[in-house]
Structures are given as C-alpha cells and as structure tokens.
Amino acid sequence: MSNTNRRDLLKFAGAATVAAGTGALIVQVTTAAGSQAAVDAPRPVEDPKQLVETYRGRKIEIGGTSAAQKQAGAHHLSAAGGTVDAGIRIDGVPLHVMQNADGTYTSVSNHYESFKSLRAVARAAVDELDGARLLPLQHG
Amino acid sequence: MGVRKDQRNLSATEKKAFTDAVLQLKRSGRYDAFVRTHNQFIVSDSDNGNRVGHRSPSFLPWHRQFLLDFERALQAINPAVNLPYWNWTVDRTATSSIWAADFMGGNGRSSDGQVTTGPFAFNTGNWTINVRSDTRNYLRRSLGAGGRSLPTATQLQTVLAQTVYDVAPWNSTSATGFRNQLEGWRGPGMHNSVHVWVGGDMQTGTSPNDPVFWLHHCHIDKLWSDWQRAHPTSGYLPTGNTTNVVDLNDTMTPWGTVRPSDMLSHTAWYTYE
Lengths: 140, 273
What we know:
By secondary structure, chain A is of the alpha+beta class. Chain A has helices spanning 67-73, 118-129; strands at residues 9-11, 26-30, 36-40, 51-55, 58-62, 89-90, 93-94, 97-99, 105-107, 110-115. Chain A folds into 2 domains: 1-41; 48-129, protein ne1242 domain like (protein ne1242 fold), CATH 3.30.1880.10. In chain A, the strands form 3 sheets. Chain A has a 5-stranded antiparallel β-sheet, sandwiched between helices. By secondary structure, chain B is mostly helical. The mean pLDDT of chain B is 98.
C-alpha cells in the first residue's frame, strides 16, 4: 500500500501529549502544548481519543459529539472487548470498530487484523477503501 | 456421502461444476444471504460479549455448520458438487492454479483491486457485490500485497501440536490452545492471515463475497479434523457454564438447534480426500 501521496494535517482537540504512528512511518506530531515529537512508533504511547486528520486525501475523525456520531454510537458499546463507540468517521461516514480484549482495535474494513490505536485502525480502513466511500452501517 | 477434495486435484469438469453452481446460487439471491449472515456474526461477536462465529471456541463448529448449509445449497443445484479445500501451505503463490481463469480467477488489477479474470469477475455481469460496507460493487483481491506470505507447513505443525482445544478467556486473547492458534489471533496467524493475504473483500466482514472464502474455510475444517485425529483424547472446551461462550452442549445461533457436540465429527456428511 503506497503512502507516497500521504499528507497529514493533525488537529488535536485535547491537550494530552499524543504520540502515535503506524508501521515505520515517521510522523510529526504537534501537541496542543506546543511541543513537537518525532515518532517512529511501533506502539502508541497514548492513543488519541479525539482527532481530526487528513490522510491520503480522506478526512478521518475520531471522537467528537456530532449528531451523526451519537446516532452511530447508539449501536456501540464502549466496554473493552466489545463494539466500541470510537466515533470514527471517514469523510463523515461511521466506521464500524470493535475493541479487542487486549486493547487493540479491529474494523469492518480489516476484520482479520488488530491495530494498536484508533488512528491506526482508521488509517488502515482508508488504505483498504483506496478512494471508495464507506456506506452507512448496516444492522439487523 | 460427499468427498471433499484438495482443489489442486479437481478435474476441469469438477471445477466448472463447482463455479457454475456458485454462480447459480448467486443468481437466485441465496448466495448473498450467506454473506449477510457471516457479516452479522462477525460484527457482533466480541471478546467480552456474546460470541459464536468468531474469536470463540465455537468458531470451528459454527463454520462447519455454515459450510454444510452452503454445500447443501450447491448440491440442491448440482448433487455432484462438493466443497473443495485450498491447502495454502502448498499452493501459496498468486500464480497457483487456484487463481486461474477456469476456477477462482486471478488477482485484482493494480488500479482498483478489481478481479478481471475468471467466473467471478465483475465484467462477466454475473458477480455483483451487493452486501458490502463501501461503494465498490466488484470483487477485489490483492494477493500477497505488502510482501505478506501465507502460513507455512512448519507453522501449521506448531498449531497442530497444541494439545488442548481452547483455553480461558475463550476469546481472541486465549494465549494457547488449538482454536485460537488456528483462528490466528495468537501464534503464527493461520486463518486470519490467509484472509489478509488474499486481501480485498476477503479481509472484510463480508469476506464470503469472494468464493475462495469457502475453499479457505474448508481447509480450516479439515485441519480441525486432522487435529482431532492427532489428539483423540482432547475434546471440545468449555463443557459448561461459561458466560457469553457456546459450551459443548449449548445451541448455536442462527440455527438454534445445532450444538458443538453435534458437529465434532463430519463423517456422517462428508469425508476428506
């Protein structure tokens, strides 16, 4: 999967120091406190629960309290090891995400893999979508 | 009684009978019902909640019944058809005959992952992906993308050497035990990594949209049988009173009547060649 056209715009809503990355990517992270960290991160130090970024031209949103997210979250439990109300949306459409008992995440787009952070599972879904749009969650 | 064969040993006639029956099932609409059922279970099976089809001890008996239902649906179309299995420890490249145009069709094209050869290519007009989580309505694959490899025979031996069927907490984090090592959340990857190796539809919750799903799971089913033969005193676990988990004599959804204890032997229905 090519990341050569990837452009990251990160906006963190929280003030927590956040350092997360996927694979061997070097990600420049600017925190709300103004410090900067270069992270070659096999594991997230702390997983952002709220994040908006553009990744490969797609808008990833994690967390937030939009009506759409609340509606999506109505189906989602937040206990570890269950379907999680991560509020992940890709270009505004909710991504079905499940938290595994070891704290990792799995999504409907990558259902046979585990990812160490919400951001990693969201980015993997963008990679898998390869430009396609998610359809709204189907239930029942 | 049916005989399930290694797909590499199928004749051209047997391959065509299989793919023709699959296409007819698709035309009837019944194929998509299998995809829908699988997706419903995979998104609701959770590590600390109710779990039946995946990440749980009943992964193997659930899929055995699921495959039986599918095989019987094919046999209602052509009684000569049996599920073949794909031994990915042997046929492990994108040029293996399983991916030829006379059977599963080939890899997806680089631009969008679309499979363009074989009976399930979108451009045949016979294989539209209806049950899906994104806008793409064509079958996709990315065989071995990212330099991934299929599980090896050596890795499989370590899994078959497990002496216990499953262990607490009976989910994706069970550190040992045959079931979770074979499902692939722990250990060398196995079942899960084959889904990822094929890529495209196979790595999503609607993985049965790719007919190779059935050949992959038929191999998983055979490996359960192989493991039982190697460990004749190791039975299905757990046997009772386990929250959120299908015990030996509990019934499994969606059937409501089928218990793991009903599925421990397949010899009443089919054998493996």
